[in-house]
Amino acid sequence: MPDVHVVNAENAHLYTDELDQHFRRRHDVFVGRRGWSELQRPDGRDIDEFDDETATHLLIIEGGEVVAGSRLHPHTAPTLLSRKFARLANWQLPPMETSLDWTRLYVLPRGETAAARMRVSRLMYCAIMQYALEREMSAITFVGYLSLIEVFGAIGWRTTPLGMPEVIDGRATLAAGIAVDEAALFSALAAAGRHGSVLTGRCLVSGGPATRDAA
Amino acid sequence: MHVQELLDAIDQIQSVDDPQKVLDLTAAALSQYGFTAFVITGLPYRGQSIEGHILLSGWPTEWYERYVFSDYVHVDPVAQRCFGTAEPFFWTEASFDRQKNRTAARVMNEAADIGMNEGFCVPMHMEDGSQGCISMGAERIEMPHEARVLLHMLGIYSFFRARLLKNPSPARRLLTPRETEILTWAAVGKTNRDISETLGITERTILDHFQNAGRKLETRTRTQAVAMALQYRLIQP
Predict the structure, then answer these.
(1) What is the pLDDT of residues B180-234, one digit of tens each?
(2) Per the count of CB atoms within 10 A, which of A44, B2, B27, B207 is most buried?
(3) Where are the domains of chain B?
(4) Nearest CA-CA distance, residue B55 and chain A, Å
(5) How far is B44 from chain A (nearest CA, A)?
(6) A190 part of contact set with chain B, CB < 8 Å
(7) Which positions 120-139 of A are in contact with B (Cβ < 8 Å)?
(8) Domain B3-167 belongs in CATH node 3.30.450.80
(9) Is residue A209 part of a domain?
(10) Is A212 domain-assigned?
(11) What is the DSSP string of chain B?
(12) What CATH number should be reported for the domain holding residue A121?
């Protein structure tokens, strides 16, 4: 299983092909499969106003192909949650200066078993938690189907709803916060069958793991 | 149930490590809406018994036994509806033909006979493709419309917590192979020096392994770590 690449403003130039794939896959998944028509773009790439220098993308790359992705923003910058889904988070919010907003999670269906897909998903969850821990975050927020609460609960993560769920496109959708701590990373690693760091990146200048390319 | 009560219940459910406590916390929250009985269960495919799938039973013993023994799960319209929907539903929404489907009618009638006239069910679709639900019965449900989504949330938390606590398989991978090896030697009375000589690593490294294992097992001393690893069956005596 490959490692998960951390791609941000500092090393995006080393990932031009992979980022382009990432935006196309996002369009396939969110516009094509999930029918979020407001994201539709003629060039077939899902790129919005949050895909700027404040965004960090986590990519799982297998043999040159991007097979899973996620996007993270610090809550000190504008986020999808604060700008578009604030109504879903009107109960209580985690401390914004130590929180990340997690958006655009996708894992491509690769004609494999549910178990194989789950392994890729869980690797991504490990990466998200490791990234947040290394940056000394305390919470990760997300907007998603209620069923994600079960998915995260199954890997031992503690979540807190941030507001009343709403039915969006026929499914109950909520904003929630995930508690960031070592136990959460550990249980995710155990569920994914992994040990040690899952993050990598091409020529990360600062803050990241040792430079290493797991092509 | 107010929002704060729900958040408190969710917080507590995620904090407890005893399945019985999950059962108690869930029962207390559900009782506010008139629910007197509930079950948290995985759903077996046709031909399988439900028995090994039940995670927590807050059903009367009599009903539990009859339901399991008579394989009601395969004719119960509530359980069957779970395979086709991700959204919670009232038992009355699990429709069936009372004339043609006599067995389904019997299950619902018998549930009513023991005091479960009405009910609410939250289906669960797990990432691994398996199905489950938390199904709640009441003499009479007293539930405002907005409580539906709160119960949906509560149901999800109770379900996954019960599933996590009753299915400790991830815990088997809790310890690294080296930690397992070292705890196993410690369990048979070897000192750190003995282990260090046997494995060809320094005592310092062994102490680090004990410290890491202790953190994962939430224990303070070497002896406690060994005891806990034995109790969780992470090592064989």
Answers:
(1) 889 989 988 899 999 999 889 999 999 999 998 888 777 788 888 888 777 666 7
(2) B27
(3) 3-167, 171-231
(4) 14
(5) 18
(6) yes
(7) 121
(8) yes
(9) no
(10) no
(11) --HHHHHHHHHHHHH---HHHHHHHHHHHHHTTTEEEEEEEE-PPTTS-SGGGEEEEES-HHHHHHHHHTTGGGT-HHHHHGGG-SS-EEGGGS---TTT-HHHHHHHHHHHHTT--EEEEEEEE-TTS-EEEEEEEESS----TTHHHHHHHHHHHHHHHHHHHH--HHHHTSS-HHHHHHHHHHHTT--HHHHHHHHT--HHHHHHHHHHHHHHHT-SSHHHHHHHHHHTTSS--
(12) 3.40.630.30
Same fold, B3-167 and B171-231: no
Query: Is the model more confident about B220 or about B171?
Result: B220
* Residue B169 touches chain A, beta carbons under 8 Å: no
Q: Would you say residue A214 lies in a domain?
A: no
Provide, as residue numbers in chain A, all residues whose Cβ is less than 8 Å from the Cβ of B176.
195
Task: Give the pLDDT band of residue B170 (cuts 50, 70, 90).
Answer: very low
pLDDT value, residue A214? 43
- State the ipTM, two decimals: 0.85
Q: Is B16 on the interface with A (CB under 8 A)?
A: no
pLDDT at B233: 63
* pLDDT single digits (tens) A165-186: 998 888 889 999 999 998 889 8
Of B126, B129, B152, the CB nearest to A146: B152
Nearest by CB to residue A154, choosing from B149, B152, B164, is B164
Average pLDDT (B142-164) is: 92
Domain hosting residue A134, numbered range? 4-200
Position B162 scores a pLDDT of: 94
Residue A103: strand, helix, or coil: strand
Determine, for residues B161 and A154 on separate chains, whether the beta-carbon distance falls below 8 Å: no
Residue of A nearest to B15 (CA): A158
Subunit contact A156:B163, Cβ cutoff 8 A:
no
Q: Is B7 on the interface with A (CB under 8 A)?
A: yes
Total domains in chain A come to 1
What are the mean pLDDT values of chain A's consecutive 10-residue runs (215 residues total)? 90 96 96 90 95 97 94 96 94 94 91 76 96 97 93 92 89 94 86 85 61 44
The verdict on B74 touching A (C-beta cutoff 8 Å) is: no
Q: Report angle CA B202, B204, B209 to the nearest 5 degrees.
A: 100
CB contact under 8 A, B14 and A155: no
Q: Looking at the structure, give the CATH architecture of the domain made up of residues B171-231.
A: Orthogonal Bundle (1.10)
Chain B residues closer than 8 Å to A191 by CB = 170
Closest CA to B162 of B17, B10, B11: B17
Tokens (6 digits) for A127: 């990466």
